[in-house]
Recover the amino acids of this structure.
């Protein structure tokens, strides 16, 4: 990320859509239950470090954040948000389940319904002078915001309800960290 992008973020008006930190290898269980983290893939030790570091870097860059941080109901996303921004600053958004489902075998009409709802969410301009952070999941290649690495962030400029949004940049965690040098 270059200094002009950092300047834009410091003025607010963007959505930082981040994928959760690195998760353990394997799959979520067929009996996945959002109340029980043991039925899901969870953050690895590296993923926990990534989440803490992500919050530290955004604070050190003095990027103004609008609270609460919105997060998918999966334990790995919630824990990422809590480690990065503090337990009290996190709000679960059930829409994260729909984003997760884009990577599953769903009908074209269901996929389009989810992508339309995503577009609508990404058109919402954050409160004046702040940026909204959403922590959820990656997308299949060519769908939605596309593939996002662990703790990667897509910088989105919402254009207002019904006016769409613009993807400004896609950054890895190391790209974001590079700004703080």
């Amino acid at each position: 990320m270059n200094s002009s992008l950092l300047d834009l973020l410091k003025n607010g008006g963007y959505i930082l859509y981040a994928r959760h930190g690195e998760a353990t290898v394997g799959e979520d269980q067929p009996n996945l239950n959002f109340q029980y983290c043991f039925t899901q893939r969870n953050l690895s030790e590296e993923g926990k470090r990534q989440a803490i570091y992500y919050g530290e870097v955004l604070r050190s860059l003095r990027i103004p954040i609008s609270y609460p941080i919105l997060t998918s109901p999966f334990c790995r996303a919630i824990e990422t948000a809590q480690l990065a921004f503090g337990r009290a600053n996190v709000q679960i958004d059930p829409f994260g389940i729909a984003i997760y489902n884009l990577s599953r075998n769903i009908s074209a009409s269901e996929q389009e319904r989810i992508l339309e709802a995503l577009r609508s969410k990404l058109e919402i301009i954050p409160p004046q002078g702040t940026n909204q952070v959403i922590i959820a999941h990656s997308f299949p290649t060519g769908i939605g915001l596309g593939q996002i690495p662990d703790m990667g962030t897509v910088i989105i400029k919402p254009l207002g309800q019904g006016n769409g949004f613009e993807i400004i940049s896609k950054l890895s965690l190391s790209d974001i960290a590079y700004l703080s040098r």
The two ends are 11 Å apart (CA to CA). Residues 3-179 form a domain with the Rossmann fold fold (CATH 3.40.50.1240). The helical segments are 3-11, 45-60, 75-85, 95-101, 108-122, 173-179.
